[in-house]
Amino acid sequence: MIRFNNDYSEGAHPRVLAKISETNFEQNDGYGVDRHCEAARAIIRGLCEAPEAEVQFLVGGTQANATILSALLKPYQGVVSAETGHIAVHESGAVEATGHKVLALPGVNGKLTAETVDAFCSGYFADETAEHMVMPAAVYISNPSEFGTIYSRAELEALRAVCDRWKLVLFLDGARLGYGLASPENDLDLPFLARVCDVFYIGGTKQGLLMGEAVVFRDASLARGFRNMMKRAGGMLAKGWLLGVQFEEMLRDGLYFDLAKEAVRLAMRLRGAFAEMGVPMLMESPTNQQFPILPNAALDILRAEFSFSTIQKIDEGRTAVRFCTSWATRAEDVETFIARVREVVG
Amino acid sequence: MIRFNNDYSEGAHPRVLAKISETNFEQNDGYGVDRHCEAARAIIRGLCEAPEAEVQFLVGGTQANATILSALLKPYQGVVSAETGHIAVHESGAVEATGHKVLALPGVNGKLTAETVDAFCSGYFADETAEHMVMPAAVYISNPSEFGTIYSRAELEALRAVCDRWKLVLFLDGARLGYGLASPENDLDLPFLARVCDVFYIGGTKQGLLMGEAVVFRDASLARGFRNMMKRAGGMLAKGWLLGVQFEEMLRDGLYFDLAKEAVRLAMRLRGAFAEMGVPMLMESPTNQQFPILPNAALDILRAEFSFSTIQKIDEGRTAVRFCTSWATRAEDVETFIARVREVVG
Amino acid sequence: MIRFNNDYSEGAHPRVLAKISETNFEQNDGYGVDRHCEAARAIIRGLCEAPEAEVQFLVGGTQANATILSALLKPYQGVVSAETGHIAVHESGAVEATGHKVLALPGVNGKLTAETVDAFCSGYFADETAEHMVMPAAVYISNPSEFGTIYSRAELEALRAVCDRWKLVLFLDGARLGYGLASPENDLDLPFLARVCDVFYIGGTKQGLLMGEAVVFRDASLARGFRNMMKRAGGMLAKGWLLGVQFEEMLRDGLYFDLAKEAVRLAMRLRGAFAEMGVPMLMESPTNQQFPILPNAALDILRAEFSFSTIQKIDEGRTAVRFCTSWATRAEDVETFIARVREVVG
Amino acid sequence: MIRFNNDYSEGAHPRVLAKISETNFEQNDGYGVDRHCEAARAIIRGLCEAPEAEVQFLVGGTQANATILSALLKPYQGVVSAETGHIAVHESGAVEATGHKVLALPGVNGKLTAETVDAFCSGYFADETAEHMVMPAAVYISNPSEFGTIYSRAELEALRAVCDRWKLVLFLDGARLGYGLASPENDLDLPFLARVCDVFYIGGTKQGLLMGEAVVFRDASLARGFRNMMKRAGGMLAKGWLLGVQFEEMLRDGLYFDLAKEAVRLAMRLRGAFAEMGVPMLMESPTNQQFPILPNAALDILRAEFSFSTIQKIDEGRTAVRFCTSWATRAEDVETFIARVREVVG
Fold first, then answer.
1. Among the residues of C233-279, which ranges form H helices?
2. Cα–Cα distance between B171 and B197 in angstroms, integer?
3. The three-state (H, E, C) secondary structure of chain A, written as one string
4. How would you write B37-83 as a 3-class SS string?
5. How far apart, in Å, are the Cα atoms of C77 and each of A340, C41, C134?
6. In this predicted model, what pLDDT tens digit does every residue of A197-218 receive, in sequence order?
7. Cβ–Cβ gap C231/A70 under 8 Å
C-alpha cells in the first residue's frame, strides 16, 4: 500500500529526528521559553523581516485555529470563512466550542474573495438588526486552501483592504504554507505575509516535522495574553523546546522550503500525468494536493494498492478524490502510481 | 405612526394585566415553583393531552432556544436549522455561545424538509471523517417560520421519522405558535405537537403576554437538570409566578387562541388586499406576517405613516418588506393602511 | 403565612403597575431603544451626575452578572469575589458558563477587603507560573452584600485604588442597592458609585419592580458591544420598554428610595426587637436582611406562621436564619412577627 | 546548572527515540487509529486486566483534564477537587473554559478525603437552593498529588463509595502515575485503578516520553463521543501513532515502571539526605517530588548551580522549595547536589 491520502502519514525528516536526539539530554526550560524556541523565533523573525513579530509554537492546526481566533475575537464577534474552510467543516466545532460563530461564505475555488467579504460586512454593518447578528471581526483563509489553491499577492492585498475598511483581523492558516510558497504559481513570500496578515502560521506537521505550527503575530500587541490562552486551551506543550528544535532545524538553512519544493514538483508530475491521460480535475491545484475525477471502477482497482481520500461524488460513475504528495513522498512511488493509473484508466 | 413592524410593540392583553394586578400582593414562592406556574402547567398538560409533559417558563425566545439546545446537546453535537432559522441568523450567536454549531441547511419557504435533513445526516454518518465534523443531534424548526409559513402534519411526521432514524431531538420554536395554529391552512394541534416534538414552546411574548415562553418537554426525562440550566443561563425569573399568571389567564378559556385568530384574520385581510392590488408577495404566508414586494417610492411614502421591516432588496426599484399583525392590531388601522396603500401603489 | 424569606415575594409597587397599564397600548420600539428606556437613562444619568454613563436594562441579577463580566473579561481572565459572593455560590455556575473562573477569596462579613484583593493580585503577578493561572482582572462586590452588610466610602476608595494598581475592573452588584443606600449606616450615594465603580447596577427586582436591573457603565467605552452581548446571552428583552417604564416611574420622584427607606426602617425594628430579646445575630446587618440565631425549637414553631430562609447551622440546638423586609412588607406583619417571637423565644 | 525544578526537562528515553526513528517512514493512518496505538491499547488493557477499557491518547495533561471532564459533565455540573489540585490552580482556567466550575475543597496533604467529598455532596443535595448551585458530578484527584503524596487502596475505595453514593464520576490524573506506583509506600496497581476509577490516565510526558498521556476509561460507554471531543478541543494529534509508538515501547516490557522506580529511589535518597541533615519537609512525599524547607541564604547559593521550584514562603528566613527527580535524573547529579547542600546547610 502506497499512501497518498494525506501529507502526514510519516514521522519527520531525518534531520529533524537527529536534532531531537542530539538535544535529548539537554535540560531545557518548559513551555516554550527555552533557547531553541528563542532561536527558532529569531530565524522566523528574520525570514519574515519582521523584528517586531511575536512567535509562539503550538502542536496542531485545529488547536492553533481555535486558540488564535478565541484570543482575537470578542465574545459577540465571529470569523468569516469560506464554506469549505477547515474551521467551517473539519474541526468538530472547535471554534464554536470557544463561543464564536463561523460565518461561512461562498468561496471561489476554495478561496474567499475580497468582494464577498466586503459585501457581507457592508450588509452586516448597514443592517438595522446588526446587534442581533454575529459581528464579523476576523477573516480566516488558508493558503494553500483545502483545495490546494493559492492566493495571489493581489488577492491578499484586496482582502487586507477590506479588513482595514471593516476593522477585521486577517488570519491565514498556513498548515501547508510551504507547499503554497513552493508552487510554480506562487507570488507570495514570508515578509509579505507578515505585513499583510495580522497573524498566520507556518505549518510544520504536514511539512516534515513530527508536529508543530509556528504562529506569527504581526506585532506583540496582538498576542497579549496569548500564552495564557495557549495554556487554557491545553495547547502549551510541556516540552515546548521540541517544537523549537524542529523549526530551528527545518528553517535554519531552507530545508523546509527545499522539501516543499520537491513535494510540489511531484504533485505537478501527477497533475501533468493526469492531464496527459485526459483525466479532468475537480480543482486546478498548483500545490501538493491534486483532485482528479476518476471512474469508480478505476478507483476500486487503485484502492487495493494506493490510499487516497474521497472528496465528492461527481455523478453515478465518477468520484473526485484527493492525492497528496509530501516531504516524504518518493519519486518512484509517484511513477509506480502513474503507471498503474495509465493501465487502469488508460 | 401605526406600527406593523413586529408583533411585540404593545404590552399585554388587558386581562393579563388585570390578573397581574389582582395577584400582585399575594406572596408567592420564587423561581417558578408557585401555585400559578403549577396551574398553568396543568392547563398546558391538559391542552396538550400530555400528562407526562414537563413545562418550564422562560422570559424570551433567544433565551429559550439557547437554553433548550444546550441542555439537550452533548458538547460535540450541533443543531440542524434552516439557513433562515432564527437561531442561525438573529440571535447574535447565542447557540454558539453555548459551544454548539448551528448546522444551517437550505430551507424551502423558510422550512426544513425531511429530505434535506435526512440527506445531511446520511452524509454525516457515512463520512469517514465524521469525528472531525459536528455531529447533527437536534433539528430546530420554527412554526410559523421566520417567513410566516407553517408546517403540515405530514411534514412534521416526516421530520419525526428522520429524527428517529438518526436519533435527533426535534425542537419546535413556537414564538408565534398561536398564529400558526390559527391559520386557515393549519392542520396541527397541541396534542399532535406534544407527540411529534421532543420539545417545543408556546410563545407568549408575541401573543399577548408581557413576556414569557412556555417550554413543553414531551417527558420529564428530557428535562433533567433543565432548571439548573435555566438558572445557569440567567433565565430563571425571580418572580417566576409572573409567567405562570400570564399563561394561566391566557390559556384557561382560550383567550390565547381567540386573539391569534383575530390577528390572522387581519393578516389575511391584508393579504387579500395586496392580491387585489396585484402586489406580489415574497412568500405566501398564511399567518400574521405578510411579505409584500413594493416599489421603493411607495415604501418611502408609506414610511411616514406606518412602520414595517425591510426584508430584502428585490431589484433596483423594489423591496420586500414585512407587515405583522398581532393580538393588539386594530381592524381600523388595517383598513387605514390598506386604503393608503391603494392610493400609493394603486 | 407571612413571608420574610426573601424580598421578591410580591409583584410590583402599584404605581409601577399603573404605569405599565397606562402605557400598555403605546406602540414602542423593542429591545430597549424606546422613549421610556431613554427617559429612564436620562434620570439615572442625572441621579448619578454622570452624563457620560451608559445605561442598559436587564431582567435579572444572574443575567446581569454573567453578561457584564463576560463582556469585560478576556477569556483567560477571572473575577475576584468573596467566597460568599452571589456569583461564587448561588448562580449555578453562570460565570463559569461564560468560560471564566470566579477567584473566590475569604471575605470579612461578606465583604472583600482591599488588602485581600491586593495581596492576591500581588501574589499572582509576582508568580513565575502566572501564565498557568487565571489572571485576576475584575473585582465583584455586592452592596449590600449577601449578608446585608455594606461598604463604606473609604472601603470602596481603597478597593478602587487596588483596582487601579492592578488594572482591575470594579463591578458592584446592586441587586439590593436601594436598601444599602437607605441604611442608617450608609455613606455612599449614586454619584460616588458612578465614579468609584467601572460598572454597577441599580436593582429593581428586589426593590419594587416586577423585574429589572439598570446597569450603569462609567463610560460608554466600557460598554462597547454590550448590547450584542445582551442579545447573545438571551438577555435583551423584546418589550424592553417595560424595564424603562418601571425604572422611570420608580426613579422620577424618589419612590425607589422612599420604599427602600421604609423597608430598612422595618428591618431595623426587627433588629432592635431581636436585640431586646437578647437574640444573637450571625451578622450585624444595617439593611433589609436580618440574620438572627434562634433555637431550633423556636424556629419549628415560627415556621408554621412565617417563612424565612435557613442560612447556617450554628450548633446542635441553634440555627442562623434570614428574615427580609422589602418595599412590600407591612408594618403590622412585622409587629405580629415580633410579638410571636417574643412568645416563642421569650 | 543541574535541573531538579521539574520532571520534564529532558526529551525521551533513548529507546523511545529509537522506536520513533525506526518507525519513521512507515505510513500510518492519522488520528490515533493506527497499528501502534492499537498495540499500545492492547498492552494497556492487558496491564489493567480490563479488556473492556477504552484507551485514547492525548498530548498533555491540561488537555487531558479539560477534555475528559467536559466529556463527562453535563453543563450545569462541576468537578470536586482539592484546593491544591492542578485543575484548580495551574491550568489557566482550562476547566472553566469548558463551562464548568471547579468546586475546590480543602485537602489533606494535597489529597481529597472521602469524608470531605461526602459532606460536600450531602450538603449540596440537601440544600433547598441546590438548583442555584453547581451540582457536583465528578471527583478529580491526582496520584501522586501535586505534593507528591499518594492515595492508598483504602482511601480510593472510600472515595469510590462516596462517588457511588452521590453518582459522581471518579477521575484520577496520573500525570506522574508511574512515580506513584513505584513508591515504597504504594499499595495500588493498574488493575485496581481500572476498577476503582471511571477514568484515569497513565502519564507519559513526565515519565520518559516526548509527550503523551494514555487515557483509560473503565468501559467504552463512558467514552462515547470522546474522540469528537478530542478533535473539538484541538487535542487529536494528526500523527497519532507517535503517541502509540511511545507507549508501546515504554510499556511492552516494563521500561516505564523501571524508570519510575529508579527516579523514586533517587528521590528517597534525597529525602534521606535531607532528614540526616535535619532539614524539615513541607510535606512527607514518598514519590519523585521532594519539598524541603530551606534557609533563603542557602537557596540563594544553591540557585547558582541547581534549579528548583519555589513553592511557599514559610517565614522571613525560610522557603519551601521543590526538587524533582525523573527518569532522566543521574545518580551522580543527586550526589553532587547532596554534597553541596551539606556544605551550604550543614
1. 241-251, 255-276
2. 6
3. CEECCCCCCCCCCHHHHHHHHHCCCCCCCCCCCCHHHHHHHHHHHHHHCCCCCEEEEECCHHHHHHHHHHHHCCCCEEEEEECCCHHHHCCCCHHHHCCCCEEEECCECCECCHHHHHHHHHHHHHCCCHHHCCEEEEEEEECCCCCCCCCCHHHHHHHHHHHHHHCCEEEEECCCHHHHHCCCCCCCCHHHHHHHCCEEEEECCCCCCCCCEEEEECCHHHHCCHHHHHHHCCCCCCCCHHHHHHHHHHHCCCHHHHHHHHHHHHHHHHHHHHHHCCCCECCCCCCCEECEEEEHHHHHHHCCCEECEEEEECCCCEEEEEEECCCCCCHHHHHHHHHHHHHHHC
4. HHHHHHHHHHHHCCCCCEEEEECCHHHHHHHHHHHHCCCCEEEEEEC
5. 58, 30, 6
6. 999 999 999 999 999 999 999 9
7. no
For domain B14-254, the CATH class is alpha beta
For residue A315 the three cell numbers come to: 455523478
Mutate to test the interface with C, among B232, B243, B306, B326 (most CBs of C within 10 A): B232
Asked if B110 and B84 count as a contact pair (C-beta separation under 8 A), the reply is yes
Q: In angstroms, rounded to a whole number, what is the distance separating the alpha carbons of residues B250 and A157?
A: 59
Interchain CB distance below 8 Å, D225 and B31:
no
Q: With an 8 Å Cβ cutoff, are A97 and D67 in contact?
A: no
- Nearest-CB residue to D8 (from A9, A17, A30): A30
| CA atoms in the 13 A half-sphere facing the CB of B335 | 3
Do the chains contact at D225 and B135, CB–CB below 8 Å? yes
Tell me what pLDDT residue C32 has: 97
Within 10 A of D339 (CB to CB), how many other CB atoms are there?
12
Side-chain half-sphere CA neighbours of A228 within 13 A: 23
Topology classification of domain A2-7+256-345 = Aspartate Aminotransferase, domain 1 (3.90.1150)
Does the domain at residues A14-253 carry the CATH identifier 3.30.2130.10? no
The three-state DSSP-derived secondary structure of D98-148 is: CCCCEEEECCECCECCHHHHHHHHHHHHHCCCHHHCCEEEEEEEECCCCCC
Q: Phi and psi for C335 in degrees, rounded to 5?
A: -65, -45
Q: Which residue has the cell 490552580?
A: D89
Band (pLDDT 50/70/90 cuts) for residue D345 is confident
Quote the CA–CA distance of D135 and D103 in Å, as a whole number.
9
D91–C132 CB contact, under 8 Å: yes
CATH architecture for residues C14-252:
3-Layer(aba) Sandwich (3.40)
ipTM of the complex: 0.97
Q: How many CB pairs under 8 A join B and C?
A: 146
- What is the overall mean pLDDT for chain A? 97
Q: What is the Cα–Cα distance from B118 to A259, expressed in whole angstroms? A: 44
pTM over 0.90: yes
Q: What is the domain partition of chain D in residue ranges?
A: 2-7+256-345, 14-253
Q: Which of the other chains make 3 or more beta carbon contacts under 8 angstroms with chain B? A: A, C, D
Contact A227, C131 (CB under 8 A): yes
List chains adjacent to chain C, taking adjacency as at least 3 C-beta pairs closer than 8 Å.
Answer: A, B, D
Cβ D96 vs Cβ C56: under 8 Å: no
List chains adjacent to chain A, taking adjacency as at least 3 C-beta pairs closer than 8 Å.
Answer: B, C, D
What confidence tens digit (pLDDT) does each residue in C23-52 have? 999 999 999 999 999 999 999 999 999 999
pLDDT in tens, A157-203: 999 999 999 999 999 999 999 999 999 999 999 999 999 999 999 99
Is the Cβ pair B225, D76 closer than 8 Å? yes
